[in-house]
Amino acid sequence: MARDPVRVLVTGAAGQIGYAIVPMVARGVMLGPDQPVILHMLDIEPAAEALKGVKMELIDAAFPLLKGIIATTDVVEACMGVNIAVMVGGFPRKEGMERKDVMSRNVSIYKAQASALEKHAAPDCKVLVVANPANTNALILKEFAPSIPQKHITCLTRLDHNRALGQISQRLDVEVSDVKNVIIWGNHSSTQYPDVNHATVKTSSGEKPVRELVADDKWLNGDFITTVQQRGAAIIKARKLSSALSAASAACDHIRDWVLGTPKGTWVSMGVYSDGSYGIPPGLIYSFPVTCEKGKWSIVQGLKIDEFSRGKMDATAKELMEEKSLAYSCLN
Ligand code: NAD
Ligand code: LMR
């Protein structure tokens, strides 16, 4: 029997990530090859013409799974009945800026769009915030949309997770799909902590710890961490634009695993509302290792945390607390 289409909202759809992600959604990369979709695309008035162009291209691509397209600058029309909301709209960081620098412009957008989502999205809507500062925008969205269940509001740290997998695969010259269970703790910023203490690689003689195979703690505790933390800035330096294809792909990975489930024995990183796990203060959207089943995520429990990790996990939590108060001061 044909499935009902899922309504997927992409805000900032005329921008770089928007342009990369909408064909992925329409091709089934996000929700699977058998799931029809209706795309809701939102942008602002100055980008209305460009948005029209994206709609024309989507029509021209004749995607069999794409059952409808709404391209609008009206936030209410955009949010109406959506099941998945990918919040990309906002202002990207430019060379030399920290993510905090885009704070004042972006948090007010998330406060305003929170109410539209709360009032008009489908009751089961799953929200992924991509726009920076991603964790704090998601927190503001959560706080100004109190009727959306807090477990339905998340932010993107899967890009950082995938970057960590990529660095390990390059270093060991192994397939990236054979590396698993890295963790991104904390903020999608340069204080994030990419942790390989529980990560493994599939080899012909079974799964082996990444630490044992790399056999270079200096690299794993040093350059590996800073490379992942600084990768966004390195892309901006090289492209003069922030990452887009990898961000779009990671956003699809995030939603796909959340909706369809993580493979057995594998976890992924998602920015989610802290419940106090691992001593991280509640009241923050913090990236944790999670597994997903039947559309629900759960934080992986019981991982051993050494002193080095503890310091880094607390430092990124501290930055998030500072961002939270800065966000509120911007909104006041
Ligand atoms: P972009 O400037 O190319 O596109 C952003 C789009 O958002 C523009 O079309 C703009 O008109 C639109 N927009 C602005 N205000 C809006 C509003 N109120 N409602 C709807 N749309 C609005 O930027 P981009 O490169 O696509 O990046 C988008 C965001 O994603 C930036 O904040 C960037 O820093 C962030 N980002 C996050 C990650 C991550 O891993 N979390 C990765 C890459 C980029
Ligand atoms: C990224 O990580 O590539 C994005 O968040 C863009 C940025 O500002 O670093």
From TrEMBL:
One Pfam family named in its UniProt record: Ldh_1_N
EC number: 1.1.1.37
PROSITE patterns: MDH (PS00068)
Molecular functions per Gene Ontology: L-malate dehydrogenase (NAD+) activity
Binding residue positions for substrate: R93, R99, N132, R163
Active site: H188
Oxidoreductase as UniProt keyword: yes
Residue ranges annotated for the Lactate/malate dehydrogenase N-terminal domain, each copy included: 6-153
InterPro entries tied to this protein: L-lactate/malate_DH, Lactate/malate_DH_C, Lactate/malate_DH_N, Lactate_DH/Glyco_Ohase_4_C, Malate_DH_AS, Malate_DH_NAD-dep_euk, Malate_DH_type2, NAD(P)-bd_dom_sf
Source superkingdom: Eukaryota
Residues that hold NAD(+) according to the record: G12, A13, A14, G15, Q16, I17, G18, D43, N106, V130, A131, N132
Record bears the keyword NAD: yes
Coiled coil: none
Domain Lactate/malate dehydrogenase C-terminal: 157-325
Keyword list, A-Z: NAD, Oxidoreductase, Tricarboxylic acid cycle
Recorded catalytic activity of this chain's protein: (S)-malate + NAD(+) = oxaloacetate + NADH + H(+)
GO BP term, pick one: oxaloacetate metabolic process
NCBIfam families cross-referenced by the UniProt entry: MalateDH-SF1, MDH_euk_cyt, PRK05442.1
Family from the record: Belongs to the LDH/MDH superfamily. MDH type 2 family.
PANTHER family xrefs: MALATE DEHYDROGENASE
Protein name (record): Malate dehydrogenase
Organism of this sequence: Manihot esculenta
The organism's taxonomic lineage, starting at the top: Eukaryota, Viridiplantae, Streptophyta, Embryophyta, Tracheophyta
